[in-house]
Specification:
6-stranded antiparallel barrel; 32% helix; 341 residues; alpha+beta; disordered N terminus; 7-stranded antiparallel sheet
């Protein structure tokens, strides 16, 4: 099995074309029925062709274009990492062991994020991880939601240094922390046994799933990003789509991507801008971004948008394309391909 770098491709009405880089991603093009029947034809960029001629190895970003911040209609890496950290609320705190001369030591902790995206922890002063942190404040926090566990799930690691929390910030966050972790009320009733700390985040490593995005995220972008408003609803909606809408998803592939020898199609993730669709055939696996046309901020909004998307797909796949004449083309962007050899 080989992971093959591919340009980010945008599908639309009138033609079939592969695009690479920010400038080309800004324009959406159409596609005809013939293009849908034939599927997407990928072409290497001039830069890739030049590298092949001179024997240069492609860069990591060129081998993994799905890492690009320029994929249209998709959350930024900062937003995706911030959403994962926001949803988790618990994680694995990694510290340098005092007993074992700096060996990595992992332990479970609860947390919330403050406005800057810094994890705020309530730590027992007698806990082993707290003792480790008194000796060496460097640490990291691994976060992965239970609803999206395993190799295919999104996760992130926040790397930083343990810091004190001011009394003013404690007053602002205490009630939120207790609302999120009710057992904390009892811990805080014991004087000097538990105290609040925060991790000053220096860097973030984000993994979007198995074989796709795996990259460092700019801390400034993480701090300035907001979690997706559908973060807590998305896992249930995705599971429902994959369980109850299999035929509809196959129709969606036919309408928006083309006639392929489909083995499996699955919704991988969903957010306010659209959803990611994994399409598997006997020879390759590709992932596409299917964008929403409407503004989506609530569960009701996303259910309405999904219904409209599936209805459009059925009409296009069943010869009623004329009813969509003059309507702005729904953006469908291929951002990942894995060719099995």
């Amino acid at each position: 099995m080989a992971f093959v770098g591919c340009p980010i491709a945008v599908l639309g009405r009138g033609s079939s074309i592969a695009v690479s880089g920010k400038a080309q991603c800004e324009g959406l093009v159409g596609r005809s029925r013939a293009a849908r029947r034939c599927g997407l034809r990928m072409v290497a960029s001039q830069e890739q062709q030049h590298q092949q001629q001179v024997g240069e190895a492609p860069s990591m970003d060129e081998r993994q274009p799905f890492r690009s911040e320029q994929i249209p209609h998709r959350l930024s890496l900062g937003e995706r990492a911030r959403t994962v950290a926001h949803v988790c609320r618990t994680g694995t705190l990694c510290t340098a062991s005092v007993k074992h001369e700096g060996q990595p030591f992992g332990s479970h902790v609860d947390y919330i994020l403050n406005e800057q995206g810094q994890p705020v922890l309530l730590l027992a002063e007698s806990a082993t991880h707290t003792k480790n942190l008194r000796s060496n404040a460097k640490c990291s926090l691994y976060c992965q939601p239970l609803s999206n566990s395993g190799q295919g799930g999104g996760r992130c690691t926040l790397v930083g240094t343990l810091e004190a929390v001011s009394e003013e910030e404690i007053e602002e966050l205490r009630d939120t922390y207790i609302d999120t972790h009710p057992h904390a009320a009892q811990a805080l009733s014991v004087a000097d046994k538990f105290n609040f700390y925060k991790i000053g985040v220096k860097d973030i490593y984000f993994v979007g799933g198995f074989g796709v995005t795996a990259t460092w995220v700019d801390p400034a972008k993480f701090e300035s990003s907001e979690p997706d408003p559908l973060a807590f609803d998305a896992p249930e909606i995705v599971a429902s789509m994959n369980r109850d809408k299999r035929e509809e998803l196959a129709t969606l592939v036919k309408a928006f991507i083309g006639d392929v020898e489909l083995e499996q199609v699955s919704v991988m993730s969903l957010d306010r801008l659209g959803f990611d669709l994994r399409v598997r055939t006997s020879s390759e696996t590709k992932e596409y971004r299917i964008a929403f046309r409407e503004k989506v901020t609530t569960r009701f909004d996303v259910q309405s948008s999904l219904t409209k998307t599936l209805q459009e797909a059925w009409e296009r796949a069943n010869g009623f394309e004329d009813s969509w004449e003059g309507v702005e083309e729904r953006p469908v962007i291929m951002y990942y391909a894995n060719v099995r050899k």
